[in-house]
Each structure stands twice: as C-alpha cells, then as structure tokens.
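Hello support,

Our group uses your service weekly, and this is the first time we've seen a run hang past the timeout. The protein is Guanylate cyclase domain-containing protein. I'm not sure whether the cause is the sequence or the server load. Input pasted verbatim:
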Amino acid sequence: MNGIKRHWPRIAVTLIPLIFALLHAVGVLQLSVLQRLDDIIYDTRLRATMPKSMDERIVIVDIDEKSLASVGRWPWGRNKLADLVNKLFTEHKIAILGVDVVFAEPDDSSGLQQLKELAKSELSDQPVFLAKLQDLSPRLDYDGVFASVLAGKPIVLGYFFTNDPQGRSSGVLPSPVFLEEALAGRTLEAPEWTAYGSNISSLAAAAPMAGHFNSFTDPDGVVRSVPLVAHYKNAYFESLSLAMFRAIVGMPRITPSYSKETFLPKAFQGVDKMLLVQGDKTLGIPVDRRGGALIPFRGAGNAQGGSFQYVSAADVLQNRIATGKLKDKIVLLGTTALGLFDMRVTPVGEAYPGVETHANMLSALLDGHVLVKPDYAMGYELVVLVISGLVLAIGLPLLSALRAVILSTGVLVCLLLMNIWPYLGYGLVLPLAGALAMTVTAFALNMSYGYFVESRSKRDLANLFGTYVPPELVDEMVQDPDSYSMKAMNREMTVMFCDMRGFTNMSEAMEPLQLQQMLTGVFSRLTSVIRANRGTIDKYMGDCVMAFWGAPVESEDHAQLAVKASIEILQVVREINQEHHLAGLPQIGIGIGINTGSMCVGDMGSDIRRSYTVIGDAVNLGSRLESLSKVYGVDIVASEITKKNTTGIIWQELDKVRVKGKEQAVKIWSPLSNDVQISSSLSDEVKLWTQFLKMYRSQLWDQADVALLNVSRLSPNKFLYRLYAERVASMRYLPYDSEWDGATNFETK
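Update from on-call engineer: The timeout came from a worker crash unrelated to the input. Re-ran successfully.
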C-alpha cells in the first residue's frame, strides 16, 4: 500500500490510456484508429486461420469472361439461362441452385413483343402470320421458358435491397421469414431498407424461394460480414446463403432468439441467434446485434484460390463438363467478369467475387462454424480493459524496467490467448485493439514517466549519496527516491571508528608519495569491506575511517553488519601485513570502536560543501571506545548495546568504563569469534574470565588472583590479562570501597 501511495503520480499517468480505451469501448469517444486496428487484427487473424482447402460440396458456375466471349455479352437471353439451368438439373443432377443474379426486367430479346404489336396492327389480317405467331409464342416467350424450367426445382433466386430516396422498387419480394411481431418488443438492429430490386413476377412465382445478396461494407470499404436477415417495412427477409441452407436442411422456420439476461428490459435484450425450428428439432445460428455474421473466408478468391470448384457457364452450355462431375453438388450461379461489377474488397482480396462470399457463408452454415461478434462483446471488452489496465497501472510503477517488460508482455500474451481461444473454438470475434493499444501505451507512458521524471530524481539521489554509500544501496534507494533525503533525523544506528595505529611513526619514516600510496591502498580495501556489509562511509580523518550503518537505507541488523565488517577488517589487515612484510614495508595495526544508539543523521555540511554524517552522544562514545582499544590491548571494542543487538558472535567482556563526559558506566566487549562452534579451550577461557570479573568487581582480590591465574594459563600472552594483573596488584592495598561499581574511569578522550 505504501508503494502505491508513493507512486500515485505514475499510476495516474498509466491509467490515462485505460480511460480513453473505456470511453471508446462504450462508444462515448469513437477513436477511428482503434476501429481500424481492430479491423487489421481481425483481417490478419482471419488470413492466418483460413483452412485454404476446397469445399467439395459447393460448386460455382461462373459467368466469366470466357462465357461472355463464347455465348455473348450480358444480359443473356433467358432461353440460354433456361438451357443452362436445365442442363444443370437434368444432365448433371445437381442438388440445389442458388442464383446470384437478379432478373428485375422482362426479357424482350426474342422479338416476341414486336411480333405481337404487328399482329395487332399491320398484319392483323394475315391468318398465316397469326397462326405462326401463336405457334412460336411459347418458344419466343423467354421469360415463360425460363419460368417453366425453374418451376418445381430446388432453386433459390437472388435479389437486393437498397435505400432509394424515392423508394422505387421493382419485381416481387419473396415471403418474409418473420414479422416484427416476432420480436415481442425486443431489439434487432438489422439494416432497414426503403426499396428493393427483385425478380419479375413470372419468375418469382415459378421459384418462390429467394434470398437477398446484400452485404455490410465497413467504413474502410471492406466487406467482412453479411446480414443474415434484412428489415423492410414490418418484415424480415433472409439472405441468399441462409435461404439455400434452409432449403438444404428441409425448410425449417426461422425464429429470433435473445440473450437470457432477464434483469434487462426487453428493449435492451438483443438478438443473439436465429433459431431454425423443424418439429422438435432446433438449430441455433449465432448472429450479432444487427442480425449478421462475419464471412469465414476459406481462402483467396477466384478459381485459383482453391476454396471452391469453379465451372465456366460456357462449358456447361457447350457440354464440356464430364457427366457426374456436378452430381449432388450445391451450385451457385454468379459472375467473376469484371465488366459485370460483382467484385468486392474483402480481407482476403481486393477483387473478390461476390458469389464466393455467399459460398463461404453457406459453407460455414453447413459446418456449423459461423463467425460472429456476440452481443456481450462490449461487456467482455470492459472487463478485460479494467482488469488488465489496473494490473498494469499498479504493477508497472512498482517494478524494475525488466520486470515491467515481462509484466507487459505477459498481459499482451494473456489478451491474445483470451481472444484467439474463443475465436478458434467457438467462432466468437471479440474486440482486441483497445486492450492491446492500452497495454502498449500504458507501458510506454510508464517507462517514459520513469525515465524523464523519476529517473531524474534517481540520478540526483545517486549523485547525492553515491560517494557515501555502496552502489548496492544506491540501487535500492533509487527504487524509492522520495523516501531518502539529507534532512536531519534521529534514528537508532551503529557507528564505527577504525584507526590505524603507528601512523605517526610510519609518516616520519616514509616518503610522502609512498605514504599516500600505502594509505590509499589500505583505505580502499577497508572501504570495500565496509561497503560489502552495507555500511556508509562518513569520512576519512587522517589515519581513521568513520562509517555507520542504518542510514540512509534503514537496516534492522545494523549492529550485526558493523561487527561483521570489523571482524573482516581484521582479516584484511592481516593480509595487508603479509604483503607489507614481503615488500619490506612497515606493519600496521588497527583499533576499532563500535557503538549502537540513537544518532542524528543528515547533511551537517555547509552551502559550499555537503557532509552526510552522524552526530550525538552515541557517536562520541563510539570514538571513545576506539581509543580504549589500545588501553585493553584488543583490536575491537564495542558497547554492550551493540553486543545485545548481534547474534552468532562469541564475546568477551573487557570492563565497565565511565568515559569523559559520561556519568553512567557502560560495559565494553570485544568479539572473539563469529563462529558459534568455538573450541572447548576458548569456551573455558570465557567462563573463567567471567568468574574473574565477578571476583574483581566484588573486590575479592585473592579469589580474583586465582581466577586470573587460571585464565592466563590459557592465553599467557594476552595483554588484557596482564593489564588486570597489574590492577589487582595495585588495588588490593586499597581499603574496601562499598560505593565502587566496578567501573574504570577515563578522564581523557
């Protein structure tokens, strides 16, 4: 929660694309670029998943350029069309024929009408002419000839709806599949037309089954879907592909079906299926809110596309098609001739035959795999946007750049999988562009904000603290730069003073350059140890290094780290002395003082020069303890509070002291080992030493002498024991002091 509060400006910036995406999803802010991106995604996905295989069930009889060159220009006489249809049914035994052509006007190409006018006027008194005309009329009535061929056959004619400003229509419409009353007050946003162009009455009567061949053209001019039902006046009419499908499966009746959200008023319950009902059998065809479905293109168009078998109409008329090749086939009669203007722009081709769009739709209906954008697409998009947007808004500001990339990539992958799975499995086309654009934009804004805004503060922080703290701590600090500053504050910390012994003698015996090189080498190695243990270098004071733990990065184990660093410093000094011995350089000694307590930390410098340091009584005591290391002949002296804040370290109590400026005495300790598995001799030594201090502070000098003698045998060369031997020897002659607390007073710093 603190991280969220700390990064709220960055979170707010990341939420901006989410807000725009939500407004677009609900239709308040129409972003054409997102709609275009959704179209591109759909087209790409469609092309990538097309089966690119031939549907052997459907054949297209093509009025192609070859047919126009062989038979004649369009329109053909309907006697030729009658011959074509007759051959398809009687000779080739096709199962059903769908006609992607409208016959809106009578065919006068035979001249019959002119002959009838002559019979009424100039040749009305010529019985031979009149008799011959009566004999020829049935054969010259091409519409009648065509109608007689159509009659009684499974043929579905085509027609179209239009929005004519004057509402001019032609031909005869087929019977509607259902009326507005079937909606019962619910919503079906099917396209509503004002006019139509249908077939002449004689043909409509001969072949009453018909379907419109309208399509939806998207704003970019691409045909991606067709209306399975179209609205004209108070009735709904089926498409050519749906009419053919119904004819194939036994002419079930059509009933609109609606989503089951009963909590919504009827006016808001949109259509989601067209139910084909026949007896006790029901088949649901999913549709979108407009009563349409997306065209599931099988592949590239035309005969070369390989999705459907193309047969030239001229080859059928001229008997160049092998018998049985078209038997039981579903046939669509249409045209690919460019001059007949039935080519459309589709996702799979810029000159796609209109007749093949119907073939694709019919193939999908037969397979039961219709692509549709469901009525809940908006709700789905809103849920996906909110979840992914909040994940990014909260997650990105809290993560490093690499992890932010991983999170964003993971969100993108999830979005793609959640979109592709219902598409491949259930034919559901769900919006994706808004979520993808939101994810990419949120990532870009987040990274930009992090680089241009937060990185600047991080760079400032790194420049501010880089000379004091190790790079590892700087890396931690820049993750939350607002939490660090040089403002003074009180905090419990641990301070360490590390002084180089014998420096004065060395400085007198060495050349300045040689001394500088030696000091630089020693301090560099000591600094590396301090930094490796998360310490902050305060300053170098001649031959002394001052460091502290617990700031600027807080650490609960600051005392542990300080003691660990001091023990490692002793090991480094041993290595340095070995190197000095081989190089003929003087040996160095180290005295370290460590104290833990409340200190004031912050910038204690000037306007000209900053100094990030610690001050306070606890710091002063740490300095005093360092000077006591020489008194007690040990390398490290630590206060009791430091000792209490460590674990896994074997300590030896040195004394109880009262330093200058302090009235209260404190116990001081020295670490013997940071390995809890100590030897039995060291364990015995610590126990005997503890017994000695008890006798010493009780002023039982004889017993103290005995205890000191016993512990000295374990470490005969230890300066500490010789120091106390001298103290006991001098103090045994003093009278018993009941007010003495066992502390040693030091009046010098």
